[in-house]
């Protein structure tokens, strides 16, 4: 790294930088030439049709699926070196809800990236866990098994785990799928608090409902970036038609 290099300084001003990301499943391209930057304090929605690569994008950022090429930087550093600063919450369908863990134990897993699996949580860690459980409205269910909770309650438990991690970047894969309106409002409130605290959030959204209005920026995908930028600039009929290959109503 050369001190004073303007390119380095430009990259380091962003919370997340994705550069020329390419991902394939076998011989089938899933993402091609995906590049974008996310500033701190931004709530970014990722939208597009089924099979557009939305979930693949967040998995590739985290390294859950291999990248054919490309780079991912967090605050100017390769994400692989600072993974503890990133909280990733996958789709509910990809989680084993039969695992015999209590809600409190699941939330406490948010301490692991910082202290490791073998260390015992300190008093401050335990207090952080209880505060996160309270924040998502699960204090009365902390002693229950995670598999006994409703879909919305399970989602809130994993958000509490992410809060305990004290990450700078949050990646959510369809957090609003199968939740009721109360849970949706609760989750949005937490997202907005994290945004206002200077974190960045990248949120895969399956549909184009009212929740889209809460995003600061939108990334519209169809295997590649169709459009990216402030919601009011990119959430247009023309961009949606390009992504969905036909008329789609913009809310």
From TrEMBL:
Domain ABC transporter, first and last residues per copy: 16-248
Q: What does the entry list under GO cellular component?
A: ATP-binding cassette (ABC) transporter complex
Q: Which InterPro entries match?
A: AAA+_ATPase (IPR003593), ABC_transporter-like_ATP-bd (IPR003439), ABC_transporter-like_CS (IPR017871), Metal_Ion_Import_ABC (IPR050153), P-loop_NTPase (IPR027417)
Keywords, A to Z, come to: ATP-binding, Nucleotide-binding, Transport
Question: Is GTP-binding one of the keywords UniProt gives this record?
Answer: no
* Organism superkingdom: Bacteria
- SMART domains, alphabetically? AAA
Q: Name one GO molecular function term.
A: ATPase-coupled transmembrane transporter activity
Question: Which residue stretches, if any, does this entry annotate as coiled coil?
Answer: none
Q: Pfam families per the record?
A: ABC_tran
Q: Which family does it belong to?
A: Belongs to the ABC transporter superfamily.
Protein name per UniProt: ABC transporter ATP-binding protein
